[in-house]
Write a structure and sequence with these properties.
With about 180 residues, the protein is α+β, with helices and mostly antiparallel strands. It has three helices and ten strands, in the order ββββαβββαβαββ. The protein has a seven-stranded antiparallel β-sheet, with no helix packed on it. The chain has a three-stranded mixed β-sheet with strand order 8-10-9. The two termini are about 35 Å apart.
């Protein structure tokens, strides 16, 4: 691999022994990253850092460039007679908008006379602590806009974004980005 790949865990530990990386980027989607490498079951810090179902926050750098800020979703250790390996899937922080609905403390979910950025800040900012960026002006305010409590946030925001000429994406730093 020509450049080094490092994963920095939210507690500050760095892991850089990856043999394969697949980084998924797109104009209208959230970043994702799959890594695989040797797994040393004797390394307690590695076992703790990538414990299945723990969803730790991480950053991934390729060389010196930040590639993704997000959370580990899948951890797949594999052990056979010849080797031990681990596969790790990381999704950007905004990706989690596709997994959650609005928090009950945001009720009522009516966004009358607000623009796209204001609605996104209220939903994504309060739910996941995301910073919201727009690549352009937010467009006209929505006269009446309502989110049903059982609707996942990404679908709702993507529909509003489309009405204002944007697509939903993210930044390497983990911000929610509306691209025009």
């Amino acid at each position: 691999m020509p450049e080094s790949v490092a994963v920095k865990h939210e507690d500050g530990r760095r892991f850089g022994e990856w043999s394969e990386i697949e980084l998924q980027l797109g104009i209208d989607c959230y970043r994702a990253c799959s890594l695989s490498g040797a797994f040393d079951a004797e390394r307690e810090e590695m076992r703790e850092a990538f414990e299945p179902l723990s969803f730790p926050g991480v950053t991934v750098t390729v060389g010196e460039e930040l590639a993704i800020t997000g959370r580990v979703q899948d951890v797949s250790p594999s052990v056979d007679a010849e080797q031990s390996s681990i596969g790790v899937s990381i999704y950007s922080t905004p990706h989690w908008l596709s997994q959650i609905c609005a928090a009950p403390d945001l009720l009522p979910l009516e966004f009358n006379h607000l623009d796209l950025k204001q609605i996104a800040q209220r939903l994504a900012g309060s739910s996941l602590g995301l910073t919201v960026q727009l690549d352009g002006a937010p467009g006209a305010r929505f006269t009446r806009c309502r989110l049903e409590p059982d609707t996942e946030l990404h679908g709702f925001l993507a529909e509003l974004a489309l009405q204002r000429g944007f697509v939903v994406s993210d930044t390497a730093a983990g911000d929610l980005l509306f691209r025009s």
